[in-house]
TrEMBL record:
InterPro entries: DUF6534 (IPR045339). The chain crosses the membrane at residues 6-22, 34-58, 78-98, 105-125, 145-167, 179-207, 213-234. Keywords: Membrane, Transmembrane, Transmembrane helix. Residues 154-238 form the DUF6534 domain. It comes from Mycena venus. This is ANK-REP-REGION domain-containing protein.
Amino acid sequence: MDKTYGAMFIGGVLTLQAYIYYESFPDDLRRIKVLVAVVWLLDVTHLVLICQSCYHYLVTNWGNGPALLIATRELDLHLIFVGIATLVCQGFFLHRIWMFSKHNWILTGVLTAACVAVFAVEILLSAQILQVPSVAYFSAHTGEVMVLFSLGGAVDVAIALVLVFYLQQGRTHFDRTNFVVAQVIHYTVATGLATSVLAVACLASYLAAPHTFIFIAIHFSLGRLYTNALLATLNSRRNLRHGTQIQRSPPSFTVMTTRVVTSTVDEEFPMSPRSVKEFPPPPPAPMAQ
């Protein structure tokens, strides 16, 4: 039981993330607030599907061996909701790449096509399981599952690397600006690496134990990790703002520059390296004779 349905009970903290976001950024653009609401609803729906599946197997059909071999509709639908949530969150990061790259349609288009391909594989798996509702389906279709997890992990790594590349271009000779850029790079690498590692963990657990639900439990958490990565990226602006304000520097103009940079982060959720470079510090005032 601990390696099958017991492995499904893994939760998240997205509701807390959403609460922190709405409390910290009441003046954000409306489309960003709507995006957060949509992501939260997708995550809650996904959680309901997980709970219903566990209740069906562990309560309603307790002791009913044959029922444990049949995939419920909720277990099938979770693939769709994970795919939708993943695509929405990846779209958020792809929009940042599109802005950072000065509207590079080729780069953004290639990454978008890869994300859509991963989503298509998830929809294909869901449709096939709906026709053959058996929990043994995954172990009998190794190719599709391997493509799903391997391509998904590769896409996450690519998105993170591209974001880091363009953020590096935002570095200047001003320490406060570099502090902001370094922190944004840190969050980007952390979120991109987390989803990539979890996708690899899904693949590894599937190859090691295809007849258990360990990889399914990790996949449950994968969708929720994407949504938490998006909220963590938005909420990281609060830490950036606080971190730059507590930096001590005798010349007042450098502190002013830092605040200008961090305010541009709040105006539009993707911090563009170009926006950092557009705010050099003013020259120091002449000293009184």
